Amino acid sequence: ELQQALREAHTLLGELQAGSVVKGPARIEGMIEPRERLQAAVDDLFEAPREHGMASAQVAKLSGIRELYLTLTGDYDLHGGYFPERARLATTADFSGLVKNSLNKLVTNTWEKLGEAGYDWWKNVTVQEHFNSLHDITGTLVGTVGDLPTIAEGANYTELKVGDSPETARFTKYGGYIPLTLELIDRDETRKLRAYARELASAGLRKISRLVAEIFTQAGGLGPTLADGETLFNLELVTTPGGHGNLANLALDAANWDLVCSKVYAQPMLIKNAAGFYGTGPQMAVNPRFMLVPRVLQRTALEICNGTYLRDTNSVYENVLKGSAVPLIVPEWTDPNDWAAACDPRVAPAIFVGERFGLAPEIFIAGDELSPAVFSNDEHRLKVRHYLAVWVNDFRPLFKNNVA
User: Fold this and answer.
1) Which among 175, 230, 236, 311 has the fewest CB atoms less than 10 Å away?
2) Beta-carbon contacts of residue 362 (< 8 Å; ≥ 6 apart)
3) Is 157 exposed, middle or buried, given 0-12, 13-18 or 19+ CB atoms closer than 10 A?
4) How far is CA 151 from each of CA 140, 148, 154, 158, 161, rounded to the nearest angstrom?
């Protein structure tokens, strides 16, 4: 009888509250954990994007990083440590972890915005690749089959001469740590932390930009030394050992751009790095897609690539090269005359950017509220780390002009 009475009461209660049970927003809000709300509040504090699904959540507004620190740690005397009896918010989230999460989001967000502004020009001319270890990288360029010989009836098949050209690269670790000091917290310098994250994003993006740009400028504009013992850009014929035939001193104009395109187009594909096979492969038959220039040559590049008409000393004529390339401004190039050409890496890859834990630098915790650094240095350490490897795998899709 008691069970029946309970069932009837339960049914009656369900009928009475049926109209208020199916309320989407209230139900969704009820499913948000306290840690998620707190992370959203910290994201708002640093002006970082919230997690997916938290965009419409109502959370308390933090006045600054000082309030966040004192609320979570209870360290009102700034001794450095965790005092649960005085902490106003009981949660498994720690102060350093929440700040780290928001700063990483801010790095990602700033990285994307800087990329839209043109700082990620290098993505157009490189292949970005993820690696699962920090072992040295061997980028092997496999040769092509020049031609298939005729096989007579009943005759043996002959060996096809196919070789490879290995280029090696090594990961380099970049980084440091951000000292989140108790003094900074007490002064409530939230804006400074926001600036830290934006500067880290800029530094990481510019680091890759510089590493790729230096491929064209190191060794006096001749580039790195490849596995064949010669510099990336040289004048030697491709029919000789180490000859690349991808260097000139042509000033940037429409005629010279077309000439460079023809030289890249005619580059022979690799068959085998051995006597009798240098430069004997079929034409690569790929035109450069990108025109790399310093800021000084931006207008000239735009006129060649996008202009409807071109002008010389005596006449104006239709620009038949319009659309033949995409101009890219290389921020690190300071020589006002040098320029380069590069093929689309999806068709003819040449430069590779390898990453171990992501292209953008990562911020993570180097300790927590009980870390020794909190006691000995009065600081929470947020470490920044960036593993990168940049190398050239093939000289054929690249051409450089060192203009005197």
Assistant:
1) 311
2) 104, 107, 384, 385, 386
3) exposed
4) 30, 9, 8, 8, 16
φ, ψ dihedrals at 25, nearest 5°: -55, -45
Q: Is 108 exposed, middle or buried (0-12, 13-18, 19+ CB in 10 A)?
A: middle
pTM, whole model, 2 decimals?
0.78
Query: How far is C-alpha 398 from the chain's CA centre?
Result: 21
Placement of tokens 């690799």 in the chain: 270
Provide the CB-side half-sphere exposure for 300 (13 A, CA). Answer: 19
Q: In Å, how far from its chain's centre is CA 284?
A: 28
What does each of the 404 residues of the chain score in pLDDT, given as a tens digit?
888 888 888 877 777 666 555 444 444 444 677 788 888 888 888 888 888 878 888 888 888 888 888 887 777 777 766 676 766 665 556 777 788 888 888 888 888 888 887 789 999 999 999 888 888 887 767 666 666 778 888 888 877 776 667 888 899 998 887 777 888 888 888 888 888 888 888 888 889 999 999 999 999 999 999 988 999 999 999 999 999 999 999 999 999 999 999 999 999 988 877 788 888 888 999 999 999 999 999 999 999 999 888 877 777 888 888 999 999 999 999 999 999 999 999 999 999 999 988 888 887 766 555 566 666 677 777 778 889 999 999 999 999 999 98
